[in-house]
Predict the structure.
Amino acid sequence: MTSILVPTSGTQTDVNVFATALALAEPLRAHMQFYHLRLTPSEAAVRSPHVDFCVGAGISATLDRLERRDKALSSSAARAFLDFCERRQVPMLDSPAGTRELSAQWLEETNDSEDRLLFHARHSDLTVLGRQHNTDLMPANLIESVLTTSGRPVVIAPDSAIEGSIRTIVVGWKETGECARALTAAMPLLVRAERVILFTAGEAGSPVSEDVNHLARQLAWNGVTAEPRTLCESKDPVAQQLAEAAAEARADLLVVGGFGHSLLREHVLGGVTRELLEGAKLPVFMMH
């Protein structure tokens, strides 16, 4: 895992996305490509509400406003990138150096936004995305689209700032191919973590299942010392239990698998739903 795609929006969301990307990149000595998508006034108009109601001179004024807005977001994103690299002392490189070290790069493109973003996501080892706040005119299902069609893992950055590196990782486990793929994709991070905890759903009072015990033994062959745990049966959704368990463990990353053709409407781990993806207070690593 040496290349991390970091889409930028030019909004306040970038602060937490950048911090999350750095926390992931530092232990891996990875290269971060900060990627900003610009929209022409015509494409922005298609995505903007109420533009269809503009007539006459209002159309021209609206297009001018959208163009100014796009320039402002582009300038803000580029400035945030430069400030981030200077403050964090991250070298800027456009091509690989002789040795593998932490580095960053700026790239900006215009139009065909979803197609271009998916292109770069497929060519990267990991994509870090912020939660949708409808401020950059990107589609509401952007996370779902990148996750289900890029073939690469995605990390959803939390809305609150994170500090430091990835030390403790919680894995939400279920006996499915999706969870297995997420675990494999996260292995470069797992082997570098100080603590890894495997949580699986179970019945009240039941011991840790042999399945998750076996997984912990298998992970030991990769140099990962994992602690198998069971989320006891509760009236609370599994999503809430998993989030609470991660908070209690002071986890820096949550790893889960992505299910179904419509991720944000389907269940993950039997109950990790939209609430977890949109409200988790730590980065969520997912692989479809």
Q: What stands out?
A: Residues 260-271 have pLDDT under 50 and may be disordered. The chain is about 40% helix and 20% strand. The CA atoms of residues 29 and 92 lie 13 Å apart.
